């Protein structure tokens, strides 16, 4: 419930499209209870946000007094509205309207929600801190979050932390939700799963070690024509294996984050099934296992090198401008997960040569050195000088400086390029490209040719 209250405050700030402050303050005085205050300067809240509030299975209701105090106002209101909600009462008697306070002509908006708890302040701080770190992956740009905790009876116990998305990073203007999601996951990776305050310059001296792919899948879900959007971002990073000081909480496993309606969600069994159903082998990945832990999905790979790490984030939301209510994961959403992840993997392959090659392409590529050696030998041993000159010209080599090693390297690079280009195409569109042709002609051939579905052998035509 406390996380739902914080999420609602984030949404009010996000929808205001103004620079906002969100504060979470935990204070314990001489009394035994802990006062929790969640305030924001976003749009004013409405009672509908709180009517469906319930203690979840993760909330021990006995550790909370069940009384919610609410103060809220919108920019157009002339008063600050006050309510109390008894979360342990029946629906008919749970909300009580209190006397409003005048704003005396001032123009501002915001909300404050307060409740009391009997749990450990250290435990609550740790849980909220982790939740806010996850929220940073969404990179909501106009919100500065301030977490404060203090036991007033213990001198020097005050704890403060400011969470600010993106920092000084330059983003497109305006930045889409997908741009922000990519930026947030990049920061998460560069800070080793947010275990560091800043980017790890030892493991990531430059941005080239991050390979980022993204995809968006959409569907019109119901008779109200709400468009359901599923965004996916995948980052492949390479880190030095000799660095024992830097670590990730889950080691070599791939963390799959799931956000629903701009709030951290739990990867359910249904979403786990969708992740299992993705054709990872088409991208050279062999899934060894998948488990659910700490609201994440953790993927284990059987064939990743030790220096390679994969991170994934999924975000599902309706294209609407109101604070969303709870909704169940549908079959449509599961299908969108598969489509969005596939688009992200395809985006990675398109941007980064040699990344995520299928197992078939990897096998064919392993023959490239021997094949290049054989072809180079045929050319250099030929007694037909015109034939040799034509081959040298097509390969972009000068006849007077051609050596066996240069020839083999050039042919091998072309073979690998052909294999990688062919592997990017859908199965039914794979073609048999020519090795010795102008590069522009080869690209055009890829666009125009379409092979019959079922052919998957890669032929390298010399002429």
TrEMBL record:
Q: Highest taxon of the source?
A: Eukaryota
Which PANTHER family does this chain map to? TYPE 2 DNA TOPOISOMERASE 6 SUBUNIT B-LIKE (PTHR36722)
Which Gene Ontology cellular component annotation is one that this UniProt entry carries? condensed chromosome
Q: Which GO terms describe its molecular function?
A: protein-macromolecule adaptor activity
GO biological process annotations for this chain's record?
meiotic DNA double-strand break formation; reciprocal meiotic recombination
- Protein name stated in the entry: Type 2 DNA topoisomerase 6 subunit B-like isoform X2
Q: Transmembrane region positions?
A: none
């Amino acid at each position: 419930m406390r996380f739902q209250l914080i999420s609602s405050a984030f949404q009010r700030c996000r929808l205001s499209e103004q620079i906002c402050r969100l504060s979470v303050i935990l204070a314990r005085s001489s009394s035994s209870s802990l006062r929790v205050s969640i305030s924001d300067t976003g749009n004013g809240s409405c009672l509908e946000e709180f009517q469906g509030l319930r203690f979840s299975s993760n909330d021990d209701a006995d550790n909370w007094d069940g009384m919610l105090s609410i103060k809220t106002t919108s920019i157009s209101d002339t008063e600050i509205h006050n309510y109390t909600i008894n979360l342990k009462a029946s629906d008919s008697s749970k909300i009580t309207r209190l006397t409003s306070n005048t704003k005396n002509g001032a123009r501002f908006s915001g909300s404050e929600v307060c409740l009391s708890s009997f749990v450990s302040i250290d435990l609550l701080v740790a849980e909220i801190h982790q939740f806010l770190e996850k929220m940073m992956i969404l990179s909501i740009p106009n919100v500065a979050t301030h977490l404060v905790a203090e036991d007033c009876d213990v001198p020097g116990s005050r704890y403060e932390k400011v969470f600010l998305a993106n920092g000084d990073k330059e983003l497109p203007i305006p930045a889409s939700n997908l741009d922000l999601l990519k930026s947030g996951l990049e920061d998460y990776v560069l800070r080793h799963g947010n275990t560091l305050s800043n980017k790890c310059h030892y493991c990531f001296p430059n941005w080239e070690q991050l390979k980022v792919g993204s995809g968006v899948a959409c569907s019109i879900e119901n008779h109200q024509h709400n468009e359901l959007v599923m965004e996916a971002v995948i980052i492949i990073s390479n880190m030095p294996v000799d660095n024992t000081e830097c670590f990730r909480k889950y080691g070599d496993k791939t963390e799959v984050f799931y956000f629903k309606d701009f709030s951290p969600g739990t990867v359910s069994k249904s979403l786990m099934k969708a992740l299992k159903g993705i054709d990872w082998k088409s991208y050279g990945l062999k899934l060894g296992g998948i488990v659910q832990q700490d609201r994440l999905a953790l993927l284990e790979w059987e064939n990743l090198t030790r220096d390679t790490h994969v991170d994934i984030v999924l975000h599902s939301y309706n294209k609407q401008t109101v604070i969303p209510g709870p909704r169940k994961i549908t079959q449509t959403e599961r299908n969108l997960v598969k489509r969005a992840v596939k688009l992200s993997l395809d985006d990675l392959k398109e941007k980064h040569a040699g990344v995520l090659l299928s197992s078939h392409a990897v096998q064919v590529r392993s023959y490239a050195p021997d094949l290049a050696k054989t072809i180079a030998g045929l050319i250099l041993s030929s007694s037909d000088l015109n034939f040799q000159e034509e081959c040298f010209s097509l390969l972009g080599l000068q006849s007077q400086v051609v050596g066996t090693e240069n020839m083999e390297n050039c042919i091998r690079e072309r073979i690998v390029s052909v294999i990688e280009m062919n592997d990017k195409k859908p199965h039914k569109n794979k073609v048999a490209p020519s090795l010795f042709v102008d590069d522009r002609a080869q690209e055009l051939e890829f666009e125009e040719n379409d092979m019959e579905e079922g052919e998957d052998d890669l032929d390298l035509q010399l002429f």
